[in-house]
Specification:
3 domains, binds fe (ii) ion, alpha+beta, 5-stranded antiparallel beta sheet, 12 strands, Beta-Lactamase
């Protein structure tokens, strides 16, 4: 006889019986279901399951020979507490077998029971007495006995014990397997999280545009989380509308995958979640199946806020699990949430740092401009000279094929090369007419003065050679050190040509700017004497651009790169 055991929680039972079953944990229900199946398989008879203390029947066998268990509850409870299979009642040819099934969750007297046949029966009279004792119909008992196997009490007990031991071992093995699976899953989740954070950490460079970093991070998250959509969305400002995620003109959101709602609704959705939306959050079904859930296309959601300082700036979200619909684990959990939290906190701090770095860069540029203005204000005859020399130097450097770092150095060096003039007497600096030898000696001090002013500023060390040596001459006749040839740093030799060109080409109150031919003649004559001949050659290689740089503020101008100067 092969009995099909119905699913425990699908049985039609009285309401109190069904409620009792719901109290059992899922794992325990699985164990009990397996136990009943194993006993049924061993004895080829169905077993019922009941709680002896309360008399609650969790599963009532619908076939086989069942008796009234209620008068026997006290005996069943004692057997359950002893913990081993027992024949609690015997009236030949019937035995009532009780197999205690311990609950993992709480002290219980759960016990599987079944009436079993001890010996073959030929006539109704042979089973009538036992049928009376067990409260079953003798004719039905006889029919049942003809289809049932017989078990001597000794074999019956041995088989029950062996089945129970086997069940317990399988349950322990299954429990261990479950723990191992959980540990493996945890290690895998941690590995994914650390890997992503490691990659993210290596990209955290405040001088680099945030756009690429954030898009790459969203892509990494999409690779790591089984979601149909990964999104970063900025909080919507109620007064000014959308805030960019980063920078002044960044996007309000970055979406990867198929977004189940219109992207502008994402921020609204998170705002509508109120306080919950300001904390790390996981929402799965059945919550999202409720009629009160306002975003029915969002089945699963995990989110972490992006906080900058104490300000909520936006969210990182994963939407709709990409696992098979209806699958048991098709929902977001602690692993996804932890990953989002880690990434959002890193991005929040990085966004803050990038903002601070940008502010520092702005402050640096404004400070340099202020110093440049101070130099120009001091020397009224040469207004705009520093800015023009900076641009002219960049043009020459480009013509010479110098590096970006040298271009940056020459631009900033150009802006500040005459800063030492701040320490020169106004009357000498602004004298209209030829200088006396003493006055010229004073003027010659401005490179050293400039060097002394700036040498304490760590970030400006690269421009010190320009400030100190921009009046050296190729033949050693310059000042302050009389350096010859290439012993003067290249950047200073380049700036010297730009400086002289601007001095010759600019109008001064006491003389107009020289004609181009005259300047060319002077530069040619001075190549290899006052100036580096290669730099003079470069000048003639980009003469038209040099002329434009003298008057056009955009030619040769390069942004002051904060990464170059503030690191
Ligand atoms: Fe100078
Ligand atoms: Fe100058």
């Amino acid at each position: 006889m092969n009995l099909a055991l119905p699913e425990l929680d699908q049985l039609s039972r009285p309401p109190d019986e069904a409620a009792g079953m719901l109290l059992l944990q899922r794992a325990e229900r699985g164990f009990l279901r397996a136990a009943l199946r194993a006993l049924e398989g061993a004895f080829n008879q169905p077993f019922s399951l009941l709680e002896a203390d309360s008399g609650e029947i969790f599963y009532a066998a619908s076939s086989g020979l069942t008796c009234d268990y209620y008068p026997r509850l006290a005996v069943l409870a004692e057997a359950a507490r002893r913990g081993r299979p027992e024949i609690i009642e015997q009236e030949s040819p019937l035995s009532l077998l009780a197999v205690p099934l311990k609950s993992w969750e709480h002290e219980s007297t759960l016990v599987a029971v079944s009436v079993l046949l001890n010996e073959r029966v030929e006539e109704e009279a042979q089973i009538a007495s036992a049928a009376r004792v067990f409260g079953v119909d003798a004719r039905r008992a006889l029919e049942w006995s003809r289809q049932s196997e017989t078990w001597s009490p000794r074999v019956l007990l041995r088989l029950a014990e062996a089945t129970l031991d086997n069940l317990i071992q399988r349950a322990q093995l299954s429990h261990l397997q479950h723990e191992v699976n959980e540990a493996v899953g945890h290690v895998r989740d941690t590995h994914v999280e650390l890997g992503l954070l490691n990659r993210l950490a290596r990209r955290l460079d405040v001088s680099q545009p945030l756009d690429e970093l954030w898009r790459t991070t969203v892509q990494w998250l999409a690779d790591a989380v089984p979601a149909q959509c990964v999104a970063v969305v900025a909080r919507r400002d109620s007064l000014s509308g959308w805030r960019p995620l980063f920078g002044e003109h960044g996007p309000p959101e970055i979406i990867h995958g198929e977004c189940p709602v219109d992207p502008p609704e994402l921020s609204e959705m998170m705002e509508r979640l109120g306080k919950a939306g300001r904390r790390p959050l996981v929402i799965n079904r059945p919550h999202t199946s409720s009629p009160t859930w306002a975003f029915p296309t969002v089945r699963e959601l995990a989110s972490a806020p992006i906080i900058q300082g104490s300000q909520l700036e936006g969210w990182i979200l994963t939407l709709n699990h990409s696992g098979l619909a209806g699958a048991e684990l098709c929902e977001f959990g602690s692993a996804e949430l932890r990953l989002l939290e880690s990434v959002s906190s890193v991005l929040g701090v990085h966004r803050h740092n990038a903002g601070l770095f940008a502010c520092q860069g702005d402050l640096f540029a404004a400070s340099v401009r202020a110093l440049t203005s101070a130099i120009d204000a001091k020397d009224t005859y040469t207004r705009g000279h520093s800015e023009r020399v900076a641009r002219l130097s960049v043009c020459l450097a480009e013509q010479l094929g110098l590096t970006k770092e040298q271009l940056d150095t020459l631009y900033l060096g150009g802006l500040l090369h005459d800063i030492g003039k701040i320490g020169i007497d106004d009357q000498v600096l602004n004298k209209c007419g030829p200088l006396t030898p003493e006055e010229f000696e004073q003027i010659k001090k401005h490179p050293q003065l400039g060097y002394d002013i700036l040498r304490g500023v760590r970030q400006l060390q690269k421009i010190l050679p320009i400030v100190l040596h921009h009046h050296e001459a190729w033949d050693g006749s310059g000042y302050p050190h009389g350096l010859q040839g290439e012993s003067t740093p290249l950047v200073a030799r380049v700036l010297a040509v730009a400086d002289s060109y601007d001095a010759m080409s600019s109008d001064r109150p006491y003389r107009p700017g020289m004609p181009q031919e005259q300047i060319d003649q002077i530069l040619r004559a001075g190549a290899g004497k006052q100036w580096d001949p290669e730099v003079v050659d470069a000048f003639f290689g980009c003469q038209a651009r040099m002329q434009r740089a003298s008057t056009d503020e955009t030619v040769g101008a390069i942004p002051l790169d904060p990464f170059q100067w503030l690191n």
